[in-house]
Amino acid sequence: MRHNKKFNHLSRTSSHRKAMLSNMAASLIFHKRIKTTVAKAKALRVYVEPMITRSKTDSTHSRRMVFRQLQNKFAVNELFRDISVKVADRPGGYTRIIRLGNRLGDNAEMCMIELVDFNENLLANKAPKKAKATRRRGGAKKATQIVEAKADQEVVAQKTDTPVADTPVADAKEETAPEATETEPETKTDEGKAKA
Questions:
Q1: Which pTM value belongs to this model?
Q2: With contact defined as beta carbons under 8 Å apart, do 43 and 21 qualify?
Q3: Among candidate residues 7, 5, 85, the one with its CA nearest the CA of residue 44
Q4: What is the DSSP letter of 165?
Q5: Taking a C-beta distance cutoff of 8 angstroms, is the pair 32, 118 a contact?
Q6: What is the pLDDT of residues 160-183, one digit of tens each?
Q7: Which domains does the chain have, with CATH numbers?
Q8: pLDDT tens digits for 53-82?
Q9: Diameter over CA atoms, the chain
Q10: 3-state secondary structure 39-106
Q11: Which of 28, 44, 76, 177 is 20 to 30 Å from 134 by CA-CA measure?
């Protein structure tokens, strides 16, 4: 019985599948990007990413373990010399699968699998990360203003020894906000008249 043994056999025997994945992994290491079917790319990703993780520690044992799967000493040298340096700070997810559409002959779903840190176009376009702005409802802004006003009143109340509940909270903050918005349109119209 083969319970819970769920992986894609790719319509090949075990030896054929291992040889194919080894050759595809070596090609991916050399060329940094290859075009294949989606099923093969998903199988290759599972096959090659543990090897890239192992290449981060450059020891004789890890080189032998990778060579046992790749069977290509030039690919092993490329992996440990060039690729491991670029992926040193990445915790995983070294490959990217980009779907390309269907093949004309048999309508197989095609894709391109590439090493993430070697795509120069995407690395050049990457903008620095902005701080994530959280969207809040309008009531949250007023609530923070009220809390700030209460804190200010408590400081004033401690100095004058008056109870906090007697003074109005929202009136002071609401009066300052409309004045600031009324002055801005006047300055814009003055600039427009000055240009004319």
A1: 0.63
A2: yes
A3: 7
A4: G
A5: yes
A6: 665 555 545 555 445 555 555 555
A7: 14-124 (3.90.1030.10), 138-195 (no CATH)
A8: 999 999 999 999 999 999 999 999 999 999
A9: 88
A10: HHHHHHHHHHHHHHHHCCCCCHHHHHHHHHHHCCHHHHHHHHHHHHHHCCCCCCCCEEEEEEEECCCC
A11: 177
